[in-house]
TrEMBL record:
Organism from which the protein derives: Candidatus Kaiserbacteria bacterium RIFCSPHIGHO2_01_FULL_54_36b
CC terms in the record's Gene Ontology section: cytosol
Name this polypeptide is given: dTDP-4-dehydrorhamnose reductase
A GO term, aspect molecular function: dTDP-4-dehydrorhamnose reductase activity
Highest taxon of the lineage: Bacteria
Residues of the RmlD-like substrate binding domain: 9-272
Family, per entry: Belongs to the dTDP-4-dehydrorhamnose reductase family.
């Protein structure tokens, strides 16, 4: 593996779930760098002259992106354009965090890098447009698609994993068992990007922990490790109004990069980032 100076890497969205695992380089969030301000982005990038930019900032509220398409467009499309343009101006490798939502969700097996995108939501469309922008504006790029990300611990994990763990004080929880995805530890995602940068890799990569799961599978794995007496009740996605419009399949696998199984990654995440907190709160 080649060496790479990660002190010369700039990241956006560094205060978010995945960004919390970026412990190197020039870390920025919206208080430091507004990705919607084209002039500010260009000036900042030209000042620091990074070798690579890991672009994690974007629209993450899935409900809001569907209710307010402009919100998704501004952050995912216009923001990405500004960052990609600045990256190319200094010859930096542009690393774009993308999503399984660029696919239609109907495939029977896992999506690979060879599958053609066909987004069905405003969020998915803006992520796919951002991919096209990066591929057309920059000469050196990594498009790193992922799915069902967990990470950040109690302070930042406010999605499925955090919501399930917050219910561990009860006797049972309900979890969807008819939608599939590839759970991905945010720490492993950043580790993969670092490895790709060291290798001088280019192109599209599916960065997800190995294997498929339903949300019920995930809840059962969490319960087995933290509170075996907790009962997990599998339900269809129609049971939750918030699940309307979710794709049936967000599972991914890569022909270009292999990661450890999701069960191993999840077990480490729970042990290192959640168990002390849950014990302190007397939840387990």
């Amino acid at each position: 593996m080649k060496s790479f100076d990660f002190g010369q890497v700039l990241s956006t969205g560094a205060s978010g779930m995945i960004g919390s695992y970026v412990d190197f380089g020039i870390r920025t969030d919206r208080t430091i760098l507004d990705i919607l301000d084209c002039e500010a982005v260009t000036t900042f990038v030209k000042k620091h002259k990074p070798r690579a930019i890991i672009h994690l900032a974007g629209a993450t509220d899935m409900v809001k992106t569907e209710q307010d398409p402009l919100y998704a467009y501004e952050l995912n499309v216009r923001g990405t354009y500004n960052v990609a343009q600045a990256a190319e101006s200094v010859g930096a490798t542009m690393v774009l965090a993308s999503s399984s939502r660029v696919f239609d969700g109907h495939k029977k097996g896992p999506y690979t890098e060879d599958d053609a995108p066909d987004p069905q939501t405003h969020y998915g469309r803006t992520k796919y447009i951002s991919e096209l922008i990066v591929a057309s504006l920059t000469q050196k790029y990594i498009i790193a698609r992922t799915a069902w990300v967990f990470g950040g611990g109690p302070a930042r994990d406010n999605k499925f994993f955090g919501k399930v763990l917050a219910q561990f004080g009860g006797d049972e929880i309900e979890a969807i068992d008819d939608l599939r995805g590839s759970p991905t530890y945010g720490k492993d995602y950043i580790t993969a990007i670092k490895a790709l940068l060291c290798e001088g890799a280019q192109g599209i990569f599916h960065i997800a922990n190995r294997g498929e799961a339903t949300r019920a599978d995930l809840a059962e794995a969490m319960a087995a490790q933290l509170k075996p007496a907790l009962r997990v009740v599998p339900v269809a996605h129609g049971h939750f109004k918030s699940a309307d419009g979710l794709p049936a399949n967000e599972s991914m696998q890569s022909k270009r990069y292999t990661m450890r199984p999701w069960r191993e990654a999840l077990a480490e995440y729970l042990r290192e980032e959640w168990e002390p907190y849950l014990h302190a709160q007397k939840i387990i």
